[in-house]
UniProtKB/TrEMBL annotation:
<keyword id="KW-1133">Transmembrane helix</keyword>
<dbReference type="GO" id="GO:0012505">
    <property type="term" value="C:endomembrane system"/>
</dbReference>
<protein>
    <recommendedName>
        <fullName>VIT family protein</fullName>
    </recommendedName>
</protein>
<keyword id="KW-0812">Transmembrane</keyword>
<feature type="transmembrane region" description="Helical">
    <location>
        <begin position="152"/>
        <end position="174"/>
    </location>
</feature>
<dbReference type="GO" id="GO:0030026">
    <property type="term" value="P:intracellular manganese ion homeostasis"/>
</dbReference>
<dbReference type="InterPro" id="IPR008217">
    <property type="entry name" value="Ccc1_fam"/>
</dbReference>
<keyword id="KW-0472">Membrane</keyword>
<dbReference type="Pfam" id="PF01988">
    <property type="entry name" value="VIT1"/>
</dbReference>
<feature type="transmembrane region" description="Helical">
    <location>
        <begin position="180"/>
        <end position="202"/>
    </location>
</feature>
<feature type="transmembrane region" description="Helical">
    <location>
        <begin position="214"/>
        <end position="237"/>
    </location>
</feature>
<dbReference type="GO" id="GO:0005384">
    <property type="term" value="F:manganese ion transmembrane transporter activity"/>
</dbReference>
Amino acid sequence: MTETPAALREPHHADVSGGWLRPAVFGAMDGLVTNIALIAGVGGGGVSPRNIVLTGTAGLVAGAISMALGEYTSVRSANEQIAAEVAKERRELERNPEGEARELAEIWVARGLPEDLARQMAEAIRRNPETALRVHVQEELGVNPDEQPNPWTAATSSFLCFSVGALVPLLPYLLGATSLALALAVGGLGLFVAGAVVSRFTNRRWWTGGLRQLLLGAAAAAATYAIGTLIGVQGGLG
């Protein structure tokens, strides 16, 4: 029995277009690190658990909204720029299809394809305007015009994942605990788990990804805790 080639089986590869995974990972990590550092900073300053909850909640809401707006704007702007370049390439193909075919063949020749074969392929593609447009955009811009990320998907993923990440270090306080160390420990566990989960998409060792995120978050928390402690001590002396 003949096996179907892998390239013809769907899905063959993971989605690498950046539609949801990148903003989701970035949102979750940013939410964790931001609120862990924020809680460490105000906790180091000696504020009450109630004020820590207030500060952490404000950080969660403000950060989630900011992340969502930033993702939407950046993805929308990138898509608009690509659309403008695609329109420019379409006009060039309409005005000078022979010249564009030669340019495409030269690109392939530069990559090692035999000149005769490159010219034959470029000429064959030129006969189909839509195919020609897609191939030229891919070869010249390095993007697929049919597989651009959705700005709403990016914004929603970022908003939700930031919120979940930022909520993790707040959970002990919301459940009645008053220990800063416990909140930071829960946040650290969240960082490790998040890093380990991300490694699933990148085929990395789960513990390596977890430790990397834990160390990065610990460094941020240590810096803000030191600053919060210094400000708190100075305020007390004043």
